[in-house]
Amino acid sequence: MNQISYIGDDGWSVIGEFLEDAKIRSVLLVTGRSAFSSSGAEAALAGILKGKRVRRVSDFETNPKADDVCRILSSVGKDDAYDAIIAVGGGSVLDVAKLLKAFWSSAHPVVGYLDGHEDLEPNTIPLIAIPSTAGSGSEATHFAVVYHGKEKFSVAHEAILPNLAVIIPSLLASLPQSVAAASGMDALCQGIESYWSIYSTSESQELAKEAISLAWKSLKRAVCDKDERSLHGIAQASYSAGRAINLTKTTAPHAVSYALTSFYGVQHGHAVGLLVPEFLEYNNEVSKGDCLDQRGHEWVKSQLLVISELLGCENVSSASQAIRDLLRELGLETDLTKLGIKTEADIDILVKNGFNPQRVNNNPRLVTEAGLRALLGKLI
Question: Which residues form the Alcohol dehydrogenase iron-type/glycerol dehydrogenase GldA domain (predicted)?
Fold first, then answer.
């Protein structure tokens, strides 16, 4: 599916033109709660949506829950035709909008699909994605995360790739530092994971390189100083990272990170940022016997060196330490004991809920339960 995209603070006019060209008269508007107003998006959209029938939905939790999606679908009046869905917010908001489109006509939304009783047949309604954080890349992907209980699932279909993605860097200026830091780390880590994925291609690696370089150069000033040029850089990095993972998906750090979020409340991007430097070193110890990439273990090591060089480092060890240092500079805790992970029982929870062979099998080095336990043990 082809996507129209635009990056720039004048992107509101692009949205207006799209709505007029498509003769959009009624809109399901999916937003966050407070950020929609504080970011300036509400005021900017007011004129664009004037005269149209608008139903706003914002009553859902961060990290989309199956129950939330089902409840929203039962309440939005699906028999009242909507001409478009517009989503404004972070990754959770964009994912909720994609899930609504995915399960619009489902008899048993989300659960029927997860149980294997229903095929996924997304609605054809146009979807416009306007990210107000830089990190998830959800505006550029054809999949969405949904939690059923504490378990994370991925829903994928080409038809839920947003038709129009408009990235407006100025929306990032109002983000609280902790949110900006965590989401920005997500963009950096997505770029890194996509680059080392066993499914990487020349196209995905070019996108990932752009994401890594821009995020590394822009992240600190975007978060700490709200520097305009850096905000544009991290916004572009996030979109490029999203496009990269749309081709490769993420790897082991993302898979394990969801347990940190579900059981210990660590922000997603923060959780991934804690794990990527550890997996960077773990993957660098790849051998012929545990290499999952058909291009070979030496090729994998050469790619990890490229990642290190993109971070301005001479080797993997210094690159890993540089990422840890960046986390601290952004105000993100690096000591897992201070995040509630203090004992072997806590490690057991992370291993039990973060290790799934299907989710870590695109990592370049084989991940075993024992290997993951040892890796996590280094963090406490």
Answer: 6-169
pLDDT at 62: 86
Q: What percent of the chain has pLDDT over 70?
A: 99
Domain 4-170 has CATH 3.40.50.10490: no
* Two structure tokens written together for 347: 């490690």
Domain spans of the chain?
Answer: 4-170, 176-377
For residue 171 the two structure tokens come to: 């929306």
As a CATH number, domain 176-377 is: 1.20.1090.10
Mutual orientation of helices 228-248 and 177-196 as an angle, nearest 10°? 40
Reading phi first (left if > 0) and then psi (alpha if -120 to 50, else beta), residue 271 is in: alpha
Identify the DSSP state of 108.
S
Alpha-carbon gap, residue 75 to 72, rounded angstroms = 5
For the segment 228-252, what is each residue's pLDDT rounded down to a tens digit?
999 999 999 999 999 999 999 999 9
Residues 6+ apart with CB under 8 A from 380: 336, 337, 341, 342, 346, 347
The amino acid present at 343, given as its one-letter code, is T
Confidence band for 1, pLDDT divided at 50, 70 and 90: low
Residue 17, token pair as written in the block = 């033109």
> What does the alpha-carbon distance between residue 198 and residue 265 come to, in Å, rounded to a whole number?
30
Q: What is the pLDDT of residue 78?
A: 65
